[in-house]
Amino acid sequence: MNKLTKISTYPVLKDDDHLLQITGSRGGIRVYKRPGSKQPLWSVTTILHSSVAKPALAPWANKQGRLAVEETLAPHVDKVLTREVLDRALEYAQKRPRETSTVAADVGSVIHDLVSAYIITGKAPHPEMLQANPLVLTAWQSFREFERDYEPMWIASEFACFSQHWGYAGSVDALAKIDGKYAVIDFKTGAGLYPEYAIQAAAYSNALSTPLMIHERADPMEWEPWEEIVPYVIRLGKESQEYEVRTVTHPDTALEGFLSALRMWQTLGISSLSKTAQKEIREHLELPEQLPVLW
After folding, report:
1. Burial class for 51, CB neighbours closer than 10 Å (0-12, 13-18, 19+)
2. How many CB atoms lie under 10 A from the CB of residue 41?
3. Are 96 and 71 in contact (CB under 8 A)?
4. pLDDT in tens, 154-192
5. Residue 111 in contact with residue 140, Cβ under 8 Å?
6. Whole-prediction pTM value?
7. What is the pairing mode between strands 229-236 and 30-33?
8. pLDDT top residue among 286 and 261
9. Strand runs (DSSP E) across the chain, as ranges?
10. Distance CA 43, CA 19 (A)
């Protein structure tokens, strides 16, 4: 682990509330910790990425490979197919899913940054920034359409939340008030919305429940988190101007699903880390000397 990033929390319940985000030198694993603590707060996205199956991923990767072969070989139809051309097609088929995924992730990262800056400052991005990439421009227009229709009262963006009790943390895209309730919002720019997104949003909302209750100075006996806090997942179209809003209608079920994934991560994920990764983690955090063993 070689990168530490300071991320502020919301709401700020004491001076300089923040977490330290620790990211591996090769990407991949991400974990947080509170200043002065050695207890790991495992990243929500790391937990879900490692523990929840993605049934749509394999067909998508398969399609990308087929498209790569077709694009490479189409110019050679009715011509002599050389070994060199075939090898090039196979190599491209192997690389294309990752390349396509990287491009999509880059667009998603840019639009997240633009939306976050807008929420924090109230200023729309400069037109030149949007026009540089048609996909980013369309996603921004999709966001503005959502904003006009739902009229959120923006509160905060890109801040850390954590559950000390369960030992996890994450970064929330946006917090707003919609129809008088807290809306914990996770923005997506992919082609669809998947069940694990509901689990992710519920985990963030659960981690924010107690801090928001204290922020409101609410009576714990009268505070019903899932009546006060609504997990939202919002897909911003980038191919066409559109948006899709989903609220997590059964957040207790979604949260239980996340906690099951957390237990799976604690059983399989940590123990599967390489010795190098474990050594790097122990430079910042305390891990059990005896990790889970299944065999």
Report:
1. buried
2. 26
3. no
4. 999 999 999 999 999 999 999 999 999 999 999 999 888
5. yes
6. 0.88
7. unpaired
8. 261
9. 3-8, 18-23, 30-33, 41-43, 153-163, 168-178, 181-188, 229-236, 243-247
10. 12
The answer to whether 183 and 176 are in contact (CB under 8 A) is yes
Secondary element (H or E) of residue 166: none
Burial 58-77 (b: 16+ CB within 10 A, else e): eeebeebbeebbeebbeeee
Burial class of 182 by CB neighbour count within 10 A (0 to 12, 13 to 18, 19+): buried
DSSP secondary structure code for residue 269 in this structure: I
* 267-279 per-position pLDDT tens digit: 887 777 777 777 7
For residue 26, the one-letter residue type is: R
Give the span between the Cα atoms of 205 and 199, in whole angstroms. 10
Give per-residue pLDDT as tens, 60-109: 789 888 998 899 999 988 888 899 988 988 898 898 888 877 777 788 89
Rounded to whole angstroms, how far apart are CA atoms 35 and 22? 12
Q: How far is CA 138 from CA 25, 56, 106, 188, in A?
A: 33, 24, 15, 14
- Name the token pair of 23: 């990211």
> What Rg do the C-alpha atoms of the chain give, in angstroms?
22
Tokens of 161: 């939340």
Whether 182 and 22 have beta carbons less than 8 Å apart is answered as no
Amino acid in position 197: Y
